[in-house]
Design goal:
The chain starts with a helix and ends in a 5-residue tail after the last helix. The chain contains 10 helices and no strands. The protein has one domain. It is 79% helix and 0% strand. Helix 7 packs across helix 8 and helix 8 packs antiparallel against helix 9.
């Protein structure tokens, strides 16, 4: 077992995995920006863009911006209000379906599969965050918000568990826990704390 672990840790693809996870937050946040932009143009007639500055976080941040969005929402139907929340989960769902089909045909994990894993992790991370805040601040959430969060939390946490326990072998689990986690936290620091605020600052 010890030799097997050492052999896994010496593989060259670990460098690819590390750098792929290093791109996690730039890819995730800007994919969210693109989805918000396209949704706004298609279904909201551009009203969000009048308020929202597309920034490095990929979210609407700042009390003033959120207040302005809430003022717009009474004039929106249910899909205009909440549709973008669910659409943001679709890339991860499509990536998982594609990954699952590839895995059923060939259990050998390839480099492209790691890219699909990254896309899946976008929504898995969002679901973990939603579950965390739902547990801690659930009393502050109204019923409609809880009902909106629960389906995505259950679906994507289940997907994450399935990937880790079923799709991954010992090799991929070790690679994720070591090189993936290192790249993930490196990505968070470099993008969210350094490059992101410089490239796409939050408008005051």
């Amino acid at each position: 077992m010890k030799r097997k672990i050492i052999s896994i840790l010496k593989q060259k693809e670990n460098i690819y995995i590390f750098f792929l996870f290093l791109l996690f937050f730039p890819l995730k946040t800007q994919l969210q920006n693109v989805i918000i932009l396209l949704f706004d143009i298609t279904f909201r007639n551009g009203v969000t863009t009048e308020v929202f500055t597309y920034n490095y976080t990929g979210t609407i941040v700042g009390c003033e911006k959120v207040t302005q969005m809430l003022q717009l929402k009474p004039n929106m139907n249910w899909f205009q209000k909440h549709g973008v929340y669910f659409i943001k989960f679709l890339p991860s769902l499509f990536a998982f379906i594609f990954l699952f089909k590839r895995w059923k045909k060939d259990k050998t994990f390839k480099l492209f599969d790691w890219f699909l894993i990254i896309i899946c992790c976008f929504s898995i991370l969002s679901s973990i965050n939603d579950a965390y805040f739902l547990v801690l601040q659930g009393e502050d959430y109204n019923l409609s918000r809880v009902l909106r969060l629960l389906p995505t939390i259950i679906i994507y946490l289940s997907i994450g568990i399935f990937i880790f326990l079923k799709v991954f072998t010992l090799k991929e689990r070790l690679q994720t826990l070591i090189f993936g986690v290192l790249g993930f936290y490196g990505s968070f620091y470099l993008w969210m704390q350094y490059f992101g605020p410089i490239i796409l600052p939050i408008a005051s």
